[in-house]
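hey so u asked for the seq, here:
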Amino acid sequence: MASEERPHWVVDPILGAAMAVYDAVGSCANFCDAEWFYVHSTPEYLRIAPGFAAVPVGSHWFGPEITGWMRDTIGPRHSRRQEFLTVGPWVLFDTPGGREVLRRRVDPSLVELIDDLVPEQSPIVRGGSHLDDAGMDVPADGSRHDLMSTVVRVHDAAGRFVGRIVDYRPPVPMSHVFSSLALADLRHLERMAAVATPDRRPAAILFADLESSTPLAKRVPTAEFFAFGRRMVRAVDQCLIDHGGIVGRHAGDGVTGFFLAETVGSESAAARSCIEAARDLRTVLAEVVARSSLGDEAVSFRFGLHWGARPYIGRITTAGRTEVTGLGDEVNDAARIEACASGGRALASKDLIECLTPADAEVVGIDLKRTTFTVLAELPTATEKARRDAPALAVCEV
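ran it, C-alpha coordinates below
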Protein backbone atom coordinates (compact mmCIF):
# COMPACT_ATOMS: atom_id res chain seq x y z
CA MET A 1 0.00 0.00 0.00
CA ALA A 2 1.14 3.57 -0.65
CA SER A 3 1.06 4.53 3.01
CA GLU A 4 3.28 1.55 3.93
CA GLU A 5 5.82 2.24 1.18
CA ARG A 6 6.06 5.92 1.95
CA PRO A 7 5.55 6.42 5.71
CA HIS A 8 7.11 9.90 5.60
CA TRP A 9 5.27 11.00 2.48
CA VAL A 10 4.53 14.76 2.33
CA VAL A 11 3.21 17.19 -0.27
CA ASP A 12 5.83 19.29 -2.07
CA PRO A 13 5.38 23.00 -1.16
CA ILE A 14 5.06 24.03 -4.82
CA LEU A 15 2.33 21.49 -5.41
CA GLY A 16 0.70 22.54 -2.15
CA ALA A 17 0.64 26.16 -3.30
CA ALA A 18 -1.04 25.10 -6.55
CA MET A 19 -3.61 23.12 -4.55
CA ALA A 20 -4.48 26.20 -2.50
CA VAL A 21 -4.98 28.32 -5.63
CA TYR A 22 -7.16 25.71 -7.35
CA ASP A 23 -9.25 25.38 -4.19
CA ALA A 24 -9.66 29.15 -3.92
CA VAL A 25 -10.80 29.72 -7.53
CA GLY A 26 -13.25 26.82 -7.46
CA SER A 27 -11.57 24.57 -10.01
CA CYS A 28 -12.51 20.92 -10.36
CA ALA A 29 -9.19 19.06 -10.13
CA ASN A 30 -7.15 16.22 -8.67
CA PHE A 31 -3.46 16.30 -7.74
CA CYS A 32 -0.77 13.60 -7.77
CA ASP A 33 2.85 13.82 -6.72
CA ALA A 34 5.80 13.03 -9.00
CA GLU A 35 5.35 9.24 -8.52
CA TRP A 36 1.56 9.18 -9.15
CA PHE A 37 0.50 9.08 -5.52
CA TYR A 38 -2.81 10.87 -4.99
CA VAL A 39 -2.45 13.96 -2.78
CA HIS A 40 -5.56 16.13 -3.09
CA SER A 41 -8.99 16.77 -4.61
CA THR A 42 -10.47 20.24 -4.75
CA PRO A 43 -13.78 20.77 -2.92
CA GLU A 44 -15.52 21.25 -6.26
CA TYR A 45 -14.32 17.87 -7.53
CA LEU A 46 -15.62 16.22 -4.37
CA ARG A 47 -19.00 17.83 -4.97
CA ILE A 48 -19.38 15.97 -8.26
CA ALA A 49 -17.70 12.83 -6.92
CA PRO A 50 -18.41 12.82 -3.16
CA GLY A 51 -17.45 9.16 -2.77
CA PHE A 52 -13.88 10.01 -3.76
CA ALA A 53 -13.43 11.65 -0.36
CA ALA A 54 -13.08 8.15 1.08
CA VAL A 55 -9.96 7.47 -1.03
CA PRO A 56 -6.93 7.76 1.30
CA VAL A 57 -4.38 10.44 0.50
CA GLY A 58 -1.22 8.60 -0.51
CA SER A 59 -3.04 6.00 -2.61
CA HIS A 60 -1.41 5.25 -5.93
CA TRP A 61 -3.43 6.58 -8.86
CA PHE A 62 -3.59 3.08 -10.32
CA GLY A 63 -3.65 1.31 -6.97
CA PRO A 64 -6.49 -0.79 -5.56
CA GLU A 65 -8.24 2.08 -3.74
CA ILE A 66 -8.77 4.39 -6.74
CA THR A 67 -9.19 1.55 -9.23
CA GLY A 68 -11.83 -0.03 -7.03
CA TRP A 69 -13.63 3.29 -6.63
CA MET A 70 -13.72 3.84 -10.40
CA ARG A 71 -14.94 0.30 -11.01
CA ASP A 72 -17.73 0.64 -8.44
CA THR A 73 -18.71 4.20 -9.34
CA ILE A 74 -18.22 4.56 -13.08
CA GLY A 75 -18.68 0.94 -14.08
CA PRO A 76 -17.92 -0.64 -17.43
CA ARG A 77 -17.94 2.69 -19.32
CA HIS A 78 -14.51 3.31 -17.89
CA SER A 79 -11.88 0.76 -18.98
CA ARG A 80 -9.20 0.99 -16.33
CA ARG A 81 -6.97 -1.47 -18.18
CA GLN A 82 -7.07 0.56 -21.38
CA GLU A 83 -6.37 3.75 -19.46
CA PHE A 84 -3.36 2.10 -17.83
CA LEU A 85 -2.04 1.01 -21.23
CA THR A 86 -2.31 4.66 -22.36
CA VAL A 87 -0.89 6.32 -19.26
CA GLY A 88 1.19 3.42 -17.92
CA PRO A 89 4.35 4.31 -19.90
CA TRP A 90 4.45 7.66 -18.06
CA VAL A 91 3.78 5.99 -14.71
CA LEU A 92 6.59 3.53 -15.31
CA PHE A 93 8.96 6.36 -16.32
CA ASP A 94 8.15 8.22 -13.08
CA THR A 95 8.51 5.19 -10.77
CA PRO A 96 11.93 4.80 -9.11
CA GLY A 97 12.70 1.10 -9.06
CA GLY A 98 10.90 0.46 -12.34
CA ARG A 99 8.60 -2.46 -13.01
CA GLU A 100 9.16 -4.35 -9.78
CA VAL A 101 8.15 -1.40 -7.62
CA LEU A 102 5.24 -0.55 -9.90
CA ARG A 103 3.90 -4.12 -9.57
CA ARG A 104 3.61 -3.59 -5.82
CA ARG A 105 1.79 -0.29 -6.25
CA VAL A 106 -0.90 -0.94 -8.86
CA ASP A 107 -4.14 -2.87 -8.58
CA PRO A 108 -3.75 -6.64 -9.15
CA SER A 109 -5.93 -6.39 -12.29
CA LEU A 110 -3.25 -4.23 -13.91
CA VAL A 111 -0.08 -6.11 -12.96
CA GLU A 112 0.00 -8.32 -16.07
CA LEU A 113 0.10 -5.23 -18.30
CA ILE A 114 3.32 -3.85 -16.85
CA ASP A 115 5.68 -6.03 -18.90
CA ASP A 116 4.23 -4.60 -22.12
CA LEU A 117 4.84 -0.98 -21.13
CA VAL A 118 7.67 1.03 -22.65
CA PRO A 119 8.69 3.86 -20.28
CA GLU A 120 8.08 7.32 -21.70
CA GLN A 121 8.14 10.77 -20.17
CA SER A 122 4.73 12.40 -20.14
CA PRO A 123 4.19 15.68 -21.99
CA ILE A 124 4.19 18.87 -19.96
CA VAL A 125 0.54 19.50 -20.88
CA ARG A 126 -1.96 17.07 -22.30
CA GLY A 127 -5.68 17.50 -22.92
CA GLY A 128 -8.33 14.97 -23.78
CA SER A 129 -11.38 13.03 -22.73
CA HIS A 130 -11.69 10.12 -20.37
CA LEU A 131 -13.55 8.34 -23.14
CA ASP A 132 -10.42 8.69 -25.27
CA ASP A 133 -8.13 7.54 -22.45
CA ALA A 134 -10.33 4.53 -21.79
CA GLY A 135 -10.44 3.52 -25.43
CA MET A 136 -14.22 3.84 -25.52
CA ASP A 137 -16.15 4.52 -28.72
CA VAL A 138 -17.56 8.02 -29.07
CA PRO A 139 -21.21 7.93 -30.21
CA ALA A 140 -21.78 8.41 -33.94
CA ASP A 141 -23.51 11.74 -33.34
CA GLY A 142 -20.39 13.03 -31.61
CA SER A 143 -22.14 13.53 -28.27
CA ARG A 144 -20.17 13.04 -25.07
CA HIS A 145 -21.22 12.57 -21.49
CA ASP A 146 -17.75 12.46 -19.98
CA LEU A 147 -15.45 15.01 -18.38
CA MET A 148 -12.71 16.61 -20.45
CA SER A 149 -9.38 16.96 -18.68
CA THR A 150 -6.11 18.85 -18.91
CA VAL A 151 -3.09 17.17 -17.30
CA VAL A 152 -0.26 19.55 -16.35
CA ARG A 153 3.21 18.67 -15.05
CA VAL A 154 4.32 20.94 -12.20
CA HIS A 155 7.99 21.89 -11.68
CA ASP A 156 9.70 23.94 -9.00
CA ALA A 157 12.02 26.90 -9.63
CA ALA A 158 14.98 24.56 -10.16
CA GLY A 159 13.09 22.59 -12.80
CA ARG A 160 12.51 19.57 -10.57
CA PHE A 161 9.31 17.66 -11.37
CA VAL A 162 7.10 17.70 -8.24
CA GLY A 163 3.71 16.47 -9.39
CA ARG A 164 0.79 16.86 -11.75
CA ILE A 165 -2.62 18.49 -11.87
CA VAL A 166 -5.61 16.89 -13.56
CA ASP A 167 -8.06 19.72 -14.23
CA TYR A 168 -11.59 18.77 -15.35
CA ARG A 169 -14.30 20.63 -17.22
CA PRO A 170 -17.60 19.75 -18.89
CA PRO A 171 -17.42 18.25 -22.41
CA VAL A 172 -18.88 21.37 -24.03
CA PRO A 173 -17.30 24.59 -25.31
CA MET A 174 -16.82 27.06 -22.50
CA SER A 175 -18.70 29.69 -24.51
CA HIS A 176 -21.82 27.57 -24.06
CA VAL A 177 -21.18 27.28 -20.33
CA PHE A 178 -20.76 31.03 -19.92
CA SER A 179 -23.81 31.90 -22.01
CA SER A 180 -25.95 29.37 -20.10
CA LEU A 181 -24.83 30.67 -16.71
CA ALA A 182 -24.55 34.38 -17.50
CA LEU A 183 -27.74 35.18 -15.57
CA ALA A 184 -27.49 32.37 -13.03
CA ASP A 185 -27.80 33.26 -9.37
CA LEU A 186 -25.19 31.45 -7.25
CA ARG A 187 -27.65 31.18 -4.36
CA HIS A 188 -30.07 29.28 -6.55
CA LEU A 189 -27.35 26.99 -7.91
CA GLU A 190 -26.44 26.13 -4.33
CA ARG A 191 -30.06 25.36 -3.49
CA MET A 192 -30.41 23.19 -6.58
CA ALA A 193 -27.30 21.29 -5.53
CA ALA A 194 -28.92 20.70 -2.14
CA VAL A 195 -31.77 18.81 -3.83
CA ALA A 196 -29.62 16.93 -6.33
CA THR A 197 -30.72 13.72 -4.63
CA PRO A 198 -34.53 13.53 -4.71
CA ASP A 199 -36.13 13.02 -1.31
CA ARG A 200 -39.14 13.97 0.78
CA ARG A 201 -38.65 17.53 1.96
CA PRO A 202 -41.07 19.70 3.97
CA ALA A 203 -41.70 22.84 1.93
CA ALA A 204 -44.06 25.71 1.22
CA ILE A 205 -45.27 25.39 -2.35
CA LEU A 206 -46.20 28.32 -4.59
CA PHE A 207 -48.05 28.05 -7.89
CA ALA A 208 -48.56 31.22 -9.95
CA ASP A 209 -50.08 31.63 -13.36
CA LEU A 210 -50.72 34.55 -15.66
CA GLU A 211 -54.44 35.09 -16.11
CA SER A 212 -56.01 35.41 -19.58
CA SER A 213 -52.65 35.04 -21.32
CA THR A 214 -54.12 33.41 -24.43
CA PRO A 215 -56.41 36.32 -25.33
CA LEU A 216 -53.57 38.72 -24.53
CA ALA A 217 -51.21 36.86 -26.88
CA LYS A 218 -53.77 37.21 -29.67
CA ARG A 219 -54.23 40.96 -29.17
CA VAL A 220 -50.59 42.09 -29.14
CA PRO A 221 -47.79 41.48 -31.67
CA THR A 222 -46.06 38.14 -31.14
CA ALA A 223 -42.63 39.77 -30.80
CA GLU A 224 -43.94 42.07 -28.07
CA PHE A 225 -45.63 39.23 -26.22
CA PHE A 226 -42.43 37.17 -26.38
CA ALA A 227 -40.41 40.08 -25.01
CA PHE A 228 -42.93 40.53 -22.22
CA GLY A 229 -42.85 36.81 -21.41
CA ARG A 230 -39.06 36.74 -21.26
CA ARG A 231 -38.92 39.76 -18.94
CA MET A 232 -41.64 38.28 -16.79
CA VAL A 233 -39.98 34.88 -16.39
CA ARG A 234 -36.63 36.43 -15.48
CA ALA A 235 -38.19 38.80 -12.97
CA VAL A 236 -40.43 36.14 -11.41
CA ASP A 237 -37.56 33.68 -11.02
CA GLN A 238 -35.38 36.36 -9.42
CA CYS A 239 -38.15 37.27 -6.98
CA LEU A 240 -38.56 33.65 -5.90
CA ILE A 241 -34.80 33.31 -5.44
CA ASP A 242 -34.53 36.56 -3.48
CA HIS A 243 -37.11 35.19 -1.03
CA GLY A 244 -35.14 31.99 -0.47
CA GLY A 245 -37.06 29.80 -2.89
CA ILE A 246 -36.12 27.24 -5.48
CA VAL A 247 -37.61 27.80 -8.93
CA GLY A 248 -39.56 24.81 -10.15
CA ARG A 249 -41.03 23.96 -13.52
CA HIS A 250 -42.33 26.59 -15.92
CA ALA A 251 -45.47 25.42 -17.69
CA GLY A 252 -46.91 27.86 -20.19
CA ASP A 253 -47.19 31.16 -18.32
CA GLY A 254 -47.09 29.45 -14.93
CA VAL A 255 -44.28 29.03 -12.45
CA THR A 256 -43.71 26.88 -9.40
CA GLY A 257 -41.60 27.76 -6.38
CA PHE A 258 -40.48 25.63 -3.46
CA PHE A 259 -39.47 27.13 -0.12
CA LEU A 260 -37.75 24.32 1.76
CA ALA A 261 -37.66 24.34 5.52
CA GLU A 262 -34.11 22.97 5.40
CA THR A 263 -32.77 25.83 3.24
CA VAL A 264 -34.91 28.76 4.44
CA GLY A 265 -34.39 27.92 8.11
CA SER A 266 -37.65 26.58 9.53
CA GLU A 267 -41.18 25.61 8.54
CA SER A 268 -42.50 28.97 9.68
CA ALA A 269 -39.80 30.86 7.78
CA ALA A 270 -40.57 28.86 4.65
CA ALA A 271 -44.29 29.64 4.90
CA ARG A 272 -43.60 33.33 5.53
CA SER A 273 -41.19 33.52 2.57
CA CYS A 274 -43.78 31.90 0.32
CA ILE A 275 -46.41 34.50 1.28
CA GLU A 276 -43.97 37.41 0.91
CA ALA A 277 -42.86 36.15 -2.51
CA ALA A 278 -46.46 35.99 -3.75
CA ARG A 279 -47.09 39.55 -2.62
CA ASP A 280 -43.90 40.90 -4.17
CA LEU A 281 -44.62 39.09 -7.42
CA ARG A 282 -47.61 41.38 -7.94
CA THR A 283 -45.25 44.37 -7.81
CA VAL A 284 -42.78 42.61 -10.07
CA LEU A 285 -45.47 41.91 -12.65
CA ALA A 286 -46.62 45.53 -12.62
CA GLU A 287 -43.06 46.70 -13.24
CA VAL A 288 -42.63 44.26 -16.13
CA VAL A 289 -45.90 45.39 -17.69
CA ALA A 290 -44.78 49.01 -17.39
CA ARG A 291 -41.58 48.21 -19.30
CA SER A 292 -43.45 46.31 -22.01
CA SER A 293 -45.47 47.56 -24.98
CA LEU A 294 -48.79 46.18 -23.80
CA GLY A 295 -50.68 49.47 -23.63
CA ASP A 296 -53.51 49.41 -21.11
CA GLU A 297 -53.84 45.63 -21.11
CA ALA A 298 -54.91 44.26 -17.73
CA VAL A 299 -52.42 41.63 -16.59
CA SER A 300 -52.49 39.76 -13.29
CA PHE A 301 -51.29 36.61 -11.58
CA ARG A 302 -53.35 34.15 -9.62
CA PHE A 303 -51.57 32.36 -6.76
CA GLY A 304 -51.98 29.10 -4.92
CA LEU A 305 -49.94 28.62 -1.71
CA HIS A 306 -49.86 25.35 0.19
CA TRP A 307 -47.78 23.52 2.77
CA GLY A 308 -46.26 20.19 1.88
CA ALA A 309 -45.18 17.98 4.76
CA ARG A 310 -44.01 15.18 2.47
CA PRO A 311 -43.56 16.33 -1.13
CA TYR A 312 -40.91 14.47 -3.10
CA ILE A 313 -38.58 17.19 -4.39
CA GLY A 314 -35.44 16.80 -6.44
CA ARG A 315 -33.40 17.93 -9.40
CA ILE A 316 -33.82 16.44 -12.86
CA THR A 317 -30.92 16.84 -15.28
CA THR A 318 -31.15 15.79 -18.92
CA ALA A 319 -29.25 16.57 -22.11
CA GLY A 320 -31.60 19.51 -22.63
CA ARG A 321 -32.23 21.07 -19.22
CA THR A 322 -31.72 21.10 -15.48
CA GLU A 323 -34.75 21.78 -13.30
CA VAL A 324 -36.23 21.08 -9.90
CA THR A 325 -39.61 19.44 -9.65
CA GLY A 326 -41.88 18.19 -6.90
CA LEU A 327 -44.32 15.30 -6.80
CA GLY A 328 -47.05 14.28 -4.42
CA ASP A 329 -50.62 15.03 -3.44
CA GLU A 330 -49.63 18.29 -1.77
CA VAL A 331 -48.07 19.59 -4.97
CA ASN A 332 -51.24 18.69 -6.87
CA ASP A 333 -53.33 20.42 -4.21
CA ALA A 334 -51.29 23.62 -4.62
CA ALA A 335 -52.11 23.58 -8.32
CA ARG A 336 -55.81 23.13 -7.52
CA ILE A 337 -55.71 26.12 -5.15
CA GLU A 338 -54.04 28.30 -7.78
CA ALA A 339 -56.65 27.42 -10.40
CA CYS A 340 -59.38 28.64 -8.02
CA ALA A 341 -57.69 31.99 -7.34
CA SER A 342 -59.04 33.82 -10.38
CA GLY A 343 -59.29 37.58 -10.29
CA GLY A 344 -55.65 38.07 -9.36
CA ARG A 345 -56.09 36.66 -5.88
CA ALA A 346 -53.61 34.76 -3.71
CA LEU A 347 -55.16 31.84 -1.84
CA ALA A 348 -53.21 30.10 0.91
CA SER A 349 -54.17 26.81 2.53
CA LYS A 350 -54.94 26.43 6.21
CA ASP A 351 -52.00 24.01 6.40
CA LEU A 352 -49.63 26.77 5.24
CA ILE A 353 -51.06 29.47 7.52
CA GLU A 354 -50.83 27.21 10.57
CA CYS A 355 -47.12 26.66 9.94
CA LEU A 356 -46.54 30.32 10.87
CA THR A 357 -45.30 31.22 14.31
CA PRO A 358 -47.01 34.24 15.90
CA ALA A 359 -43.92 36.33 15.14
CA ASP A 360 -43.83 35.41 11.45
CA ALA A 361 -47.59 35.79 11.17
CA GLU A 362 -47.25 39.33 12.50
CA VAL A 363 -44.57 40.09 9.91
CA VAL A 364 -46.94 39.18 7.06
CA GLY A 365 -49.94 40.80 8.73
CA ILE A 366 -51.96 37.67 9.48
CA ASP A 367 -53.96 37.34 12.69
CA LEU A 368 -53.80 33.65 13.51
CA LYS A 369 -56.68 33.92 15.99
CA ARG A 370 -59.14 35.65 13.67
CA THR A 371 -58.34 34.24 10.25
CA THR A 372 -61.21 32.22 8.79
CA PHE A 373 -61.09 29.69 5.98
CA THR A 374 -63.34 28.48 3.18
CA VAL A 375 -63.17 25.04 1.60
CA LEU A 376 -62.49 25.00 -2.13
CA ALA A 377 -65.84 23.41 -2.95
CA GLU A 378 -67.64 26.46 -1.56
CA LEU A 379 -65.68 29.04 -3.56
CA PRO A 380 -67.66 30.53 -6.47
CA THR A 381 -64.43 30.33 -8.50
CA ALA A 382 -63.80 26.64 -7.72
CA THR A 383 -62.84 24.63 -10.78
CA GLU A 384 -64.27 21.24 -11.65
CA LYS A 385 -60.96 19.58 -10.78
CA ALA A 386 -60.84 21.31 -7.40
CA ARG A 387 -64.40 20.20 -6.57
CA ARG A 388 -63.49 16.67 -7.61
CA ASP A 389 -59.97 16.28 -6.18
CA ALA A 390 -59.72 18.64 -3.18
CA PRO A 391 -63.20 19.86 -2.20
CA ALA A 392 -62.43 19.98 1.54
CA LEU A 393 -59.15 21.86 1.27
CA ALA A 394 -59.53 25.02 3.37
CA VAL A 395 -58.04 28.29 2.15
CA CYS A 396 -57.97 32.00 2.89
CA GLU A 397 -56.91 35.03 0.90
CA VAL A 398 -53.50 36.51 1.66
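The chain has two domains: 2-176, 183-397. The domain at 2-176 is CATH 3.30.450.20 (Beta-Lactamase).
lmk if thats what u needed
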